[in-house]
Design a protein that fits this description.
Radius of gyration: 26 Å
Structural class: alpha/beta
CATH architecture of the largest domain: 3-Layer(aba) Sandwich
Distance between the termini: 83 Å
CATH superfamily of the largest domain: Thiamin diphosphate (ThDP)-binding fold, Pyr/PP domains
Strand content: 15-25%
Helix content: 25-40%
Strand order of the largest sheet: 3-2-4-5-7-6
């Protein structure tokens, strides 16, 4: 007897019933609250798509047909980042599965919860080098939190429930489920497994922090004179935005964030000092170099943040809070390690402070905050204006001015760093590939974010090189009417590659110029059914952005910007964060606050340990 489809039954089964493996998969996804799936069909996954047809017809699940599996993975990733929910994507066996790999690795590096479903050749053909067979289970082992190959359709509901639990608890990360074609077709006595009902012996992520270590952290915080909060993506993952703010305001602690931590703290707040690291603000990098206590919250001491590791916060004691015990002490040994969910640890720390009636002296960090604010005045982020071109910073600042509350996604490169510097984002409204640095991420990620928040403005900021990695997803925007605005910061280069070639490779610009062969982006957008706008002059910029935002539909805007503009400040590889170059003129510093470098005679603030011009220790 043929399996009954969802379109033929008004009530989903809650008792034993004859169903296929494909039905069990879709029913389990539905029970876990999945509303959107991003994917691309193919032979091995066709039984699942055949069942999906009925679920879409019933309005319970919407499938978004990407134009490339990598786009589907990034869209699921963007959906997860924008919501905190588990993103779901489908791909078939062989090349379909391998096309997902970059998207899986991107999500894994940034700790994003995803469940990735791949089709596989029939069970009897596995290992025979059958048509479109690859061992995607083995290929993805280093870039997933866990993997499954479904050998028996009776295991489907349990595996899906486990996958969602594993992906979304502890340190989030993708989970792969590989489903042989015949498993999707096979009928069996189906018993649903409800979300949250699975038991996984040995998998117990630590949520509560150790009380003794929390007390130790509190003692360090209450006595520090130059404390700094260093916030990473873990604060976003645990939704600890309110707790971070409470801690900062209670003890009057300046706050710096990583690229992944953007949005975890109000960047317009007086205590915010912006992003730190290779292209962080000068005042954040000086602050981390001079602090006496560094409170690392959900951050992993990434090399792009720390610069020369042994000189990173070298004057500071360290409190490190993270849910992943493997990260605590991996790069920097903390004086107080606390393993636990970031939000829960901060709640307990704040509560413990109330219990002990910790006396707060607002003057304790007053001198420190004044010092940080002086750096802020002396080393501001600059928005240059040129007579003959639009600067990239100018274009991004105007976007921020007209759409301050949008969800922003980016590709990777100079435009990403300028966006991180000049956009002031709220929680989950900054979506960017940080750990892997994946070009082509921005457009499909924006697609996922917009599906999650259809009534919110979603803007992708891309480069002229990176946009071409997944520009085919313009077709997806048109098919589903996804109102994403894409802004190309077009300088005719692989901008960050060119900057490094200029700074570190003798200005040998090998294979980094993109002008020859660059498409007419406006015509290309129109060919996909997307509105195209081109901006060449400053006089056009403000009105063009307003026109883009007012248009009811997807738009691709191509802004021609200054060709050879570099992203500063910059910390060279292997240098201390205090050894930035490309700093603005220090016009606000009084003469009595200046000393001269003995090596190059450059003027340098006495509070900085290194000459910003030549790197000599002062």
């Amino acid at each position: 007897m043929r399996s009954q489809s969802i379109s033929e039954s008004k009530v989903l089964p809650t008792t034993i019933d004859r169903r296929t493996g494909a039905f069990a998969l879709l029913d389990s996804l539905n029970r876990h609250g999945v509303e959107h799936i991003f994917g691309y069909p193919g032979g091995a996954i066709l039984p699942i798509y055949d069942e999906l047809y009925h679920w879409e017809a019933s309005g319970k699940i919407k499938h978004i047909l990407a134009r490339h599996e990598q786009g589907a993975a990034h869209a699921a990733d963007g959906y997860a980042r924008a919501t905190g929910k588990v993103g779901v994507c489908f791909g078939t066996s062989g090349p379909g599965a391998t096309n997902l790999v970059t998207g899986i690795a991107t999500a894994h590096m940034d700790s994003i919860p995803m469940v990735v479903i791949t089709g596989q050749v029939p069970r009897a053909a596995i290992g025979s080098d059958a048509f479109q067979e690859t061992d995607i289970y083995g290929i993805t082992l280093p870039i997933v939190k866990h993997s499954y190959v479904v050998r028996d359709p009776r295991d489907m509901a349990r595996i899906v429930a486990e996958a969602f639990h594993i992906a979304s608890t502890g340190r989030p990360s993708p989970v792969l489920i590989d489903i042989p074609k015949d498993v999707g077709l096979e009928e069996f006595d189906y018993v649903p497994v409800e979300p949250g009902s699975v038991k996984l012996p040995g998998y117990r992520p630590t949520v509560k922090g150790n009380p003794r270590q929390i007390n130790q952290a509190l003692n360090l915080i209450r006595t520090a004179e130059r404390p700094l909060l260093y916030i990473g993506g873990g604060a976003i993952a645990s939704n600890a935005h309110a707790e971070v703010r409470q801690l900062a305001e209670l003890f009057q602690i300046p706050v710096t964030t990583t690229l992944m931590g953007k949005g975890s703290f109000d960047e317009k707040h007086p205590l915010a000092v912006g992003m730190l690291g290779m292209h962080g603000t000068a005042y954040a990098n000086f602050a981390v170099s001079e602090c006496d206590l560094l409170i690392a919250v959900g951050s992993r001491f990434d090399d792009r943040v720390t610069g020369k590791l042994d000189e990173f916060a070298s004057r500071a004691q360290v409190i490190h809070i993270d849910i992943d015990p493997a990260e605590v002490g991996k790069n920097r040994a903390p004086q107080v390690p606390i393993v636990g969910d970031v939000r829960q640890v901060l709640i307990d720390l704040l509560q413990r402070g109330q219990e002990l009636d910790v006396a707060i002296d607002a003057n304790q960090t007053k001198e420190w905050r004044s010092r940080v604010n002086r750096w802020r005045q002396d080393y501001p982020l600059m928005v240059p204006q040129y007579s003959d071109s639009i600067s990239p910073q100018e274009a991004i600042s105007e976007l921020a001015n007209q759409a301050p509350n949008a969800y922003y996604t980016t590709d990777v490169g100079q435009h990403q760093m300028w966006s991180a510097q000049f956009l002031k984002n709220g929680p989950r409204r900054w979506i960017s590939s940080a750990g892997l640095g994946t070009m082509g991420f921005g457009l499909p990620a924006a697609m996922g974010a917009k599906m999650a928040h259809p009534d919110e403005e979603v803007i992708c900021i891309a480069g002229d090189a990176s946009i071409q990695m997944n520009i085919q997803e313009l077709g997806t925007l048109t098919q589903y009417g996804i109102n994403v605005k894409t802004v190309i910061i077009n300088n005719g280069w692989q901008g960050m590659v060119r900057q490094w070639q200029q700074a570190f490779h003798g200005e040998r610009y090998s294979s980094s110029n993109m002008e020859v062969g660059m498409p007419d982006f406006v015509k290309l957008a129109e060919a996909y059914g997307v509105k195209g706008i081109i901006v060449r002059d400053r006089s056009e910029l403000t009105d063009a952005i307003a026109e883009m935002l007012a248009h009811n539909g997807p738009v691709l805007m191509n802004i021609h910007v200054t060709k050879n503009e570099n992203c500063y400040p910059m910390v060279a590889p292997g240098k201390s964060n205090a050894q930035m170059f490309g700093l603005p003129e220090r016009s606000h510093i009084e003469a009595t606050e200046l000393v001269y470098c003995s090596n190059c005679d450059a003027k340098n603030p006495a509070t900085n340990n290194f000459c910003p011009e030549c790197g000599t220790k002062m």
